[in-house]
Write a structure and sequence with these properties.
single chain, alpha/beta, Rossmann fold, 2 domains, 13 helices, binds cytidine-5'-triphosphate, Coenzyme A biosynthesis bifunctional protein CoaBC
Length: about 400
Amino acid sequence: MSRLNIVVGITGGIAAYKAVGVVRSLVLAGHDVHVVPTDGALRFVGRPTLEAISRNPVHVDLYEGVAEVRHVAIGQAADLIVIAPATANTIAKLAAGLADDLLGNTVLASEAPIVIAPAMHTEMWLNPATAANVATLRERGVTIVGPAVGQLTGTDSGPGRMEEPDVIVAAALARVEASARRDLAGRRVVVTAGGTREPLDPVRFLGNRSSGKQGVAIAEAARARGAQVTLIAANLEVASPGGCDIREVSTALELQAAVTEAASGADLVVMAAAVADYRPASISESKIKKQPGDDGLTLELVRNPDILAGLGHAPHDGTLLVGFAAETEADDERLLELGAGKLEAKGADLLVVNRVGWTEGFARDDNRVVILGNEGVLARAIGSKMSVAHEILDVAAPRLRETHEPG
Ligand code: CTP
């Protein structure tokens, strides 16, 4: 990657000490890094540390450097802005577009991609005000990295811990690469994500452990690469990405209706959702009660349609179909055989084989997949769900129809 001009905004949270690692990695990767700390950040890390590590002068005061119009110059020159840690206060200010300090001015004056790594106590992260501000930023295309779940400053733990510096740096650089790579511009992409739920009665359902993280990452990655994305979201446990047309569904039949409609004329359909193969034969109108003296309950299930196979076996000229295979098979060779069988049985063009288990695959931030085509193994990807998303698109993009030039 060529040398980038990167602004690292550091705000006033204890994780500010870890931001030094973010600055250092970016400098060692050859980038020109300009640190813009808030006053609060300087209570946690000293300016000399930031100047030494970034190898550039560090400015804080809005009223210094007025002759060179510094309050807008830093943002205008940036190729990327990373804010780590981003406190709840800074996130609120960014959402509102406030510019009462140098960092606020820098962000408003910039057209560069913005990547933020929130860090705060769990209660603050879960507070509806913070959640609404984060959703606003996501909607505007800001990339949110983390927060991770783990030990916080005190004895408490939960979501709110700043992601590790190497994860933030990788996500930030991937974001710039993705924005530079507009290979899906003009393409229409449909992604299914999450897991379907099949109701038994008004209070219960049969579901699965898919969180939707991998599908959401694919939707975000495709959008960053210029596609117009429809995300068919089945009971997501993660926030849906900004800038996509979101269609919420719950059951397999609802997902089928939504994807069949959206897939018509699409260039790429990625079926990342975990779809229930069976649904209760009937849905009880009232809560199913225990019967006195019974020692079990037998449910009658009926087959759901195989949605991917339905699309794969219908004429779909010009639409590249990517399926997923979730397998618990431990043996690698056997796993690939199962994948190859599914690719053929479903009439998909590509199949992303993903091992799942009690601790693998579901709800995690990282993933390990093999991408199969009719020719065999095309790629193996391991890493964050976002980097795996880009690798899947790297394989898919050159295979899209050539009937129209991407605009
Ligand atoms: N899929 C689908 N409709 C279904 C079941 C699965 O469209 N009723 C899609 C999934 O979205 C995924 C692919 O098919 O892209 C494979 O899903 P998976 O659960 O691995 O396979 P199944 O077909 O359910 O096969 P099995 O459960 O027998 O392994």
